[in-house]
């Protein structure tokens, strides 16, 4: 289920192809009344139509912010894991198969579960790996906007993010054997930011919303630097 795959053996490197990341934030539209946020286990969010490019107005409906292409915003600095002072920060995740396709994932004091849906041979005890990946991207987007507004003292009320990917689940295992295809085919996102912002703040948030650290990591590609596989 990995997004990219290298053959066993230390020192071998492969670089993930950038596919779909530049679709993030495109096609944003007004959220229909009564629609939910990023919740739900569905593999794809329903289509939401509306007039793109609309901005939030005080007292008006909540609307999506569409990023301007080619923008290079500067995020607030501080003691953030993605911007360490001095040496790089290493993130460690441990995963153990607990039965069937259920996986227990740990990181420090945090524990969560990953699984496959029942129609893919799992027990649906947790999100699948693709959903975890999109969840990490969505969470990073929310946190980045929140930290930026806090840094600027801007009146943020809420951030809601939706991400979808198009790959059919049945193709996943087949793609794992083909390094050239072991990636998300297309990722699309909608970011909804609520707050009483002026035009300048609104334009800036349109840029910041698609520049979170996880987004930039996926966009520029990932290097797998020596994956060790021990069998037996």
TrEMBL record:
It comes from the Bacteria. InterPro entries: KH_dom-like_a/b, OsmC/Ohr_fam, OsmC/Ohrsf. Residues 1-11, 26-35 have a biased composition (Low complexity). This is OsmC family peroxiredoxin. Residues 1-88 are annotated as: Disordered. It comes from Egibacter rhizosphaerae. Pfam families: OsmC (PF02566).
């Amino acid at each position: 289920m990995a997004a990219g795959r290298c053959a066993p053996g230390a020192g071998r490197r492969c670089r993930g192809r950038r596919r779909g990341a530049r679709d993030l934030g495109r096609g944003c539209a007004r959220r229909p009344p009564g629609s939910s946020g990023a919740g739900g286990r569905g593999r794809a969010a329903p289509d939401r139509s509306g007039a793109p490019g609309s901005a939030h107005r005080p007292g008006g409906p909540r609307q999506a912010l569409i990023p301007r292409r080619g923008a290079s915003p500067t995020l607030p600095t501080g003691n953030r894991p993605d911007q360490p002072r001095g040496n790089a920060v290493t993130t460690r995740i441990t995963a153990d198969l607990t039965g069937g396709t259920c996986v227990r994932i740990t990181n420090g004091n945090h524990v969560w579960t990953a699984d496959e849906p029942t129609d893919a041979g799992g027990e649906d005890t947790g999100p699948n790996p693709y959903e975890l990946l999109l969840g990490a991207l969505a969470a990073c987007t929310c946190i980045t906007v929140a930290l930026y507004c806090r840094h600027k003292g801007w009146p943020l009320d809420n951030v809601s993010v939706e991400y979808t990917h198009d790959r059919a689940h049945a193709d996943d295992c087949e793609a794992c054997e083909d390094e050239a295809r072991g990636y998300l085919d297309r990722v699309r996102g909608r970011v909804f930011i609520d707050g009483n912002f002026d035009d300048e703040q609104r334009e800036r948030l349109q840029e910041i919303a698609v520049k979170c650290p996880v987004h930039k990591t996926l966009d520029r590609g990932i290097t797998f630097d020596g994956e060790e596989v021990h069998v037996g």
